[in-house]
Amino acid sequence: ELAPLGGVRFRKFGFHVYDANLWAPEGKWSWQSLFALDIRYARNIKGKALAQKSVEEMERVNAGDEAKRKKWGEQMERLFPDVKAGDRLTGIHRPGEAARFYLNGTLRGEVRDAAFTKLFFGIWLSPRTSQPQLRLALLGRS
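Below the sequence we write its predicted structure tokens.
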């Protein structure tokens, strides 16, 4: 049973891009447990752009291996659709196993790779995120 932990509105250059909410068991987040990151988009964004930005942010969190990042980018391009304002993209963190993705409640697929899973969710939740205030808000600490 997942409960809301924290949420935030993300803006870039003053423009509302998305609202994000983190859901965790009993409202307690841990890398060792299942959790969900739900993003409701406020703008139309191409799936390819989402995948490319995700790869850039994953690299920032942990440089990792270039060949793996390329493979992960291709997987995300297949999984991430073009989104329009109002669409919800939800990622489910399955610790040590996979990241599962849903668009508006419909399963799009998953990436079964523990390293990918931690790096992908690290975009928002790693202490090395490019948006530390966003991280704190998602964790309910702001």
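Strands lie at 2-12, 15-25, 35-41, 88-94, 98-103, 106-111.
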